[in-house]
Amino acid sequence: MAASDNTSITDAEFAQFQRLIYQIAGISLADSKKVLLVGRLGKRLKALDLDSFAAYYKLVSSGNDPLERQTMVDLLTTNETYFFREEAHFDFLRQVVIPQHPPGQSLDIWSGASSTGEEIYTLCMVLADEMGANGQWSILGSDISTHVLGIAQRGLYWLDRTRGLPKEYLRKYCLKGVRSQEGAFIIDPALRRHTRFMQVNLNTTLPEVGKFHVIFLRNVMIYFDNDTKRKVVARMIEKLRPGGYFIVGHSESLNGLNETVKPIKPTIYRLPG
Q1: Which of 124, 147, 197, 222 would you label with 190, given CA atoms 20 to 30 Å apart?
Q2: Which of 85, 143, 188, 192 is catalytic?
Q3: Which CATH number fits domain 11-77: 1.10.155.10, 3.90.1150.10, 2.60.120.380, 2.70.150.10?
């Protein structure tokens, strides 16, 4: 029997999904997110011709269908982002980080929860402005969601996604789509060649990603409990170069979570060295 529009989920079934997404991604899905879960996963029930959330849970928890499990993770971890979000961090990059960086050395940055790529390409524009589009700099974008990483890697956005993006940057660093891509814009390949993308689950042992002068981990820790936050931050700080900066979202803090990095201003921390 196919899932109908009024497919509902019991409290016990919702609790099973809460435990599963916590186990996989370290995300604490609040009770208030039940409507969101039903809305997003309900579409998968219909697509797979399943008649209950219990049947879908059995499918994604069994380990027999890793692609569907990844689809579930993608649907439950996709969050809003936009260009130049929390602009003070990019001002700090211009005013402090770039001027003090040794000339002739590559400036390497990691966006740990890069989502659909707006943070990555904002960084690209700032670095191209200050260090040149052919300068020595690189950016790694990672996310647990393969879906958003695919969008980020393409660097193609509809014009209604220009929130926060100054018009001069749209002209300078973006190419207008034509024919089938009319109404869209793509990030200039001269910027995209400085980027690389990798699926990374911050809730597990990190792959070999390199060392970085700046790590952004913004607006993702709000979904973690304190134990998960401590573990994630500790793992990521190991990838920070001495003297490097760790930047979190404006509603986040490392207070009580990690003493390895030192606060230099709200939401911005530095590793001594």
Answers
A1: 147
A2: 143
A3: 1.10.155.10
